[in-house]
Structures are given as C-alpha cells and as structure tokens.
C-alpha cells in the first residue's frame, strides 16, 4: 500500500517544473500573454520533447502509455507556473476520447499523430455540462450544426473533438466547410478557449458507446483543472509567505503579525488536503471506475472553493502590491478563476455529484 | 499509487470481518458519551484486546495483545469496525494519552501496575493540565507541589478537567521547581482521585451536562515515586503525548461516520412530503461537506503512507486537528439546519430526533475546536512549523525555545 507518487512520478513533476522555471518565468508568460497568444512556442516545444503530447497515448500507438495520475502531476506543475501551454484538452482529453470510443481504425489513424504532435486537437464538450446563450450541436447525416461554447485549447488547433447534444463525440477538421472559430477572451490569458460555429459541417463520429465517453472526458478534464488550480494555489501560498517574510511595516516583517500568519495558515490548511483528493481522483479514474465520476466532481468542486479562498487571501497578504499588474500575482488569481468555472462551477458539479448518488428526486 | 494491501492483509481483513460478523451482538449500544464504560463496554473491550483488535501492539505483560507494530493492520481494523458501524476499542484520555506516556517514559512498576487495568476500561483517568490562568499558555501553570517527608504536597486548582467526577486516577502537571525557568519547573504526577484533599466540582457546560469539572487540591499528599519522568521534566513528558491527543481529535474515520449519519438523516427526514435531501440548498451543502470529508480521508491515507515509509507527516499532518474539528462541527451544523425547527428540540422533547444528539454534538464539537490546542494555536503551529514564518514574540521568556501547548 502506498498512497503517494512513485519516484518516476516525482521525477516527471520535477522535470516539468525545472523546465518551466527556466523557459517560462513570469516575464515570459507576460510577454506571450501580451502578444495575444496563449501558447508559448518555446515551452510547448520543450514539453513535447518530454513526450507530453503522447503522455496518455498507449505505447502501441507511439505514446508513453501513462495514466491520468501522471497527467495530473503535469497539470499541477503547469498551474504552478501559470504556463501558457495547451495541455488538458489537447494532450489528455482528445486522446482519451479516442481510447474510450474510437474504433481500432480510428485509434490507429489518430493516436500516433497526436503522440507525434502532428495533429492538434481542441475539445468542445461544454454543452454536456451547461448550455448558455443557446449553444448546442446537433448531428444529422454525418454533419454537425450549431454552436459549441468554451472549446478548450483551440489556439493552433487543426482538429476538434466535439460532443453533440446526445453526448456522442465527433472529429471535425478546422478546415471543414461551414466551420467558424471565434476566440473568446477570458480573464486568463494563459489558456485559449473559443466558440465554434458549425453549419452542416462534415464530421467523423467516434464508434461511440452512447455518451459514456463524453462523461469520461469531462471527468478527466475536471480532475486536470482541479490539479491545475491546486498547483496555482501552491504557488500563491508560497509567494504570500515569501512576501510576508520580507515586507516590513511598523518596524517588523508583516509575516510576524499574527493576522498575516493566520491567513497563511488557513490557506495551507485548506489547500493541503486538496492534493490527496486530486491524486485519489486521478487514481480512481485509472483504477476504480465505479468511483471515478463522483470523486472527479468532489475534486473539481472542492479545489474550486479552496482555490478561490487562496487566490483572494494570497492577494490580500500582498497589500496594494498584490492588486497591481506589475507584480503579476493576478496571473495565478485568474488561472484559478478559470479552473473554477470551466467544465462546471462548484454548484453545478455538486448537483451532478448528488445525481450520481441518487439524491435528486426523479420529477414526480 | 498502490492502494491494495496485498494478499496477506486481505486475509487479515477477512478475519476482522469474520470476527465482527460473529460478535457484533456483544458490542455495547450507545457507547457514546459515558465517561466510564458500561459492563458490556468493558466486556467488549476485553474481547477486542484478546483478539488484538485494540491495544494491539502493547506488550502482553502490560495487558495488550503484543503484536508487532503494523500500521496497515491497525488501519484495516479501524476501517472494518467503522464500516460495520460497530464500536472499536475504547479511546479515553487514559488509553490515548496516559498509556503511550507510560510506555515511553514510565518505570517498569508503573507500566505493570497501570496499563492493564486502564486498557481494560477498569481504571478511568482524567487529565489535569489546564488551570484558570493557564490554558493555551499551559506552561505558565501554578498548581504547586513541594516535597515533604517523602511526599509531594499539592496545592492549587485545575479547570476544564473532563471526567474528573468519574475518574479513578489523574495525570497531572504541577510546578515542583519554583525557581526554575517556566518550562523546566514542571513535573508529571499520577495519583488516585480519592486522595484526601481533592475536591471536584462539576462545571455545567453549554450542553446542559457537566462534561468537565473544576478540581481543587488542598495539601494533597502524593508519594514522590508517583512521578513519570524526572522532576522538572513534566513539560516534555506531557508534550510526548499531546500529539496523540491531536491524532485522536482528527480521526478521519470518525468524520466519515458522522457524514454517513448526516446522509441517513437527510434521506429519512421529510419536510412537506419531500425528503430533506431533495432541497437543493441543503443538498449542496451536504455534497460540499462530502468532498471535504473525502479530502481529509485521502489526506489521512497519505499521512499513513508517509508513516509506513518512515517519512515525516509534514503539512498534511499539521493541519489535521484544525481542519477535522472544524469539519465535524460543520457536519453537525448542517444536520441541525436539515432538521430546521426540529433541530432546536432538546432534553427529551416530543418530536426530538436521536435524543438531541445533533445539538449536543454541535455544541460539544465547538468545545473540541477549543480544547486540544485552540484553532488559533493550531494556526500558529501551522504557520511557524509548517511555513517557517516568524515565531510569536514571547514576553514571558527572556530567550529560548517557545513551546505552545494547550490540551
Ligand atoms: C470540551 C473541552 C474539554 C477539555 N478537557 C480538558 C481536560 O480534560 N483537561 C485539561 O487539562 N484541559 C481540558 N480542556 C481545556 C483546554 O485545553 C483549554 O480550554 C484550551 O487549551 C484553551 O485554553 P483556555 O480555555 O484557557 O483559553 P485561552 O488560552 O484563554 O484562549 C482564549 C482565546 O484566546 C486565544 N489565544 C490564546 N493564546 C493565543 C495565542 N498565542 N495566539 C492566538 N490566540 C491565542 C485562543 O485561541 C482563544 O480563542 C478542555 C477544554 C474543552 C473545551
């Protein structure tokens, strides 16, 4: 019995962290973001060298064949560094869709190219969680029509994995007829999301199993967003503690004031159990399928709540400086804000968790 | 991540399950709040010791089961008893705090004399630490003991002494070295509550019961050999066991049990013909607490793994008392809100649910947030030891290590 990360997993986390520390310090993040992109070419290339595009692709298809727990560790490291690198949807959800619901031929066609970084997917499944502004995609006669909102990792995507309203997954080429991609501008400049408008756009359906694959993708996405939020919260706590240890007021460092110490202690006390929860959720996704969806909901909603608390408290510890663009703490604040809402905010996700447990009366 | 325990342990799990299935009818009902275990409680405790399901690693010559320490087996026992909803071994202050202290620092004679009857539930202890002037700042305690003709002669007062009224024995911190530095002048004594000169006055608490007491000492004579550790070492002796108490107060199995009881309550109770759990606002709070309990459960598994590997518990461990006590309190708070107006019924009223135990818990768990080192003291500890932030300035000490106690 060993509840924790293996040595290989710790090394994976360290290599991603080390690489980002070198290639993607805050100045670089800012530069990329201010250039209007959510993709750091140099970070993306270096992470591809580590094999991230094929992280969860089976070895038989040229990937590393790792599990969601490994992906989760990477997500935490990316969140910690607020790295402008597509990962959740492109490197994990898209290949998982093919693994869960693709035919052998589809897997053989797509997975090796995903692992090699030759195709770049965006993923649009948000309508399965919440529909806003009339969004939704219908499928008829092998073509898709409608709007998918909050398509993840859409910048530089050449293909999209889209769920229709029945929850079936389809592959659409970015070049296909009747497809229009509109970038959405969010608070978080380090991630790209878009609106995909489809008008009788030809699509290739995955040899699906009736919507279960989309549920699985959403569970995976939620765990990774939770992991990202956890990493961003770790970074904010570390920055708050460091700042409190050097900023002086009233002739002493502010970290010696108990009000400030207690803010930091509360952040750490709430955040630390999230780590175990996220790890377990990822482990369950890989190994305990009966629990996977429910724990994914718990991980997503709980880190969403704790993330919000940490984001505001760590900012407060920095005083006016925390509020400035100059310090850049807001990159983490916004990353956490993004992670909280995407694929369902806490209330939405908890409602799903309740439904999964039969706690919602079937309408009389 | 490997959460399987392996075949040897699964066999052990089967044994535990088999034991519970065969013997569960012997388990005491309503073991809950009583300070002194009932006759069935004592019999149950003895049966558990005999099979190694409590006091498992305590040597046989001291009345334990004498198994090699095996964290996983202990874990399996806790899991299976919790899952079956059957009370496990007793966990009073004598067993959780005094016994580990004696095992670590007691004389051979003390071990032989006290551990066995304490484990069996025959001897009940109380903890005499806090005083009217010394709570969080425990080391400032003033109850004094001077040596006179082979005895310590104790004078002073303790307060918040849980179960002092029922207890046979007390483990007590007293100042024996009047002129030594604050933390160096304390000794840890053990003596019967029937010793002449002890007066116990129950203190009614907000729950309406008297869960704790004031304990007065007037020329109480205790033979000098009834000391654990050396004279002046009492602070360190006591600190050896504060960790055990905090572990007891943050047990994730207990949280899970409370949550299951809450779920049961919310699915059974009806309001206006609908289940309470069908009310979205209350259900949302329930699921939020469920997620937090899950986080504490896996945090506990992580601590356990670190322990097996001989690694320090780190931040995961430092936060347990603070988080778990708060969470337990919130679980009870939601239960009361789920009961709504029924939630305020108490003292055996008509329509009262579960003997008013949710209200009792709601109040008592606030006490547990305060006892065992208050929430604020926990935050001092987390920030100073976990985050390496500056220590609290000490006006009471010229220099030297600060020590924050609090039971
Ligand atoms: C249910 C219950 C059972 C108990 N059982 C026992 C028992 O069996 N035996 C026993 O000896 N004692 C027992 N206690 C006593 C318990 O250990 C003390 O109540 C506790 O340590 C707090 O001390 P105090 O009550 O004097 O509060 P104080 O120390 O006076 O604290 C009052 C407030 O000041 C805050 N405070 C104090 N110091 C600091 C600081 N340095 N930084 C920030 N805030 C601070 C506290 O957090 C608290 O909010 C029990 C208490 C309760 C509630």
From TrEMBL, chain A:
Molecular functions per Gene Ontology: acyl-CoA dehydrogenase activity; flavin adenine dinucleotide binding
Occurrences of domain Acyl-CoA dehydrogenase/oxidase C-terminal (ranges): 209-348
Keyword Transmembrane helix: no
Pfam families per the UniProt record, alphabetical: Acyl-CoA_dh_1 (PF00441), Acyl-CoA_dh_N (PF02771)
Annotated ranges, domain Acyl-CoA dehydrogenase/oxidase N-terminal: 6-118
UniProt keyword annotations, A-Z: FAD, Flavoprotein, Oxidoreductase
Co-factor(s): FAD
Similarity section: Belongs to the acyl-CoA dehydrogenase family.
Protein name: Alkylation response protein AidB-like acyl-CoA dehydrogenase
Source organism (scientific name): Novosphingobium kunmingense
UniProtKB/TrEMBL annotation, chain B:
Residues in Acyl-CoA oxidase/dehydrogenase middle domain copies: 126-220
Location of the Acyl-CoA dehydrogenase/oxidase N-terminal domain: 7-122
Keyword annotations: FAD, Flavoprotein, Oxidoreductase
Taxonomy, superkingdom: Bacteria
Domain Acyl-CoA dehydrogenase/oxidase C-terminal: residue ranges: 232-386
Region entry Disordered, spans: 388-407
InterPro entries assigned to the protein according to its UniProt record, in alphabetical order: Acyl-CoA_Oxase/DH_mid-dom, Acyl-CoA_Oxase/DH_mid-dom_sf, AcylCo_DH-like_C, AcylCo_DH/oxidase_C, AcylCoA_DH/ox_N, AcylCoA_DH/ox_N_sf, AcylCoA_DH/oxidase_NM_dom_sf, Mycobact_Acyl-CoA_DH
Cofactor dependence: FAD
Keyword RNA-binding: no
A GO-annotated cellular component: plasma membrane
Keyword Nucleus among record annotations: no
GO molecular function: flavin adenine dinucleotide binding; oxidoreductase activity, acting on the CH-CH group of donors
Family as reported in the entry's similarity comment: Belongs to the acyl-CoA dehydrogenase family.
Name of the molecule in the record: Alkylation response protein AidB-like acyl-CoA dehydrogenase
Organism encoding this protein: Novosphingobium kunmingense
Classification lineage: Bacteria, Pseudomonadati, Pseudomonadota, Alphaproteobacteria, Sphingomonadales
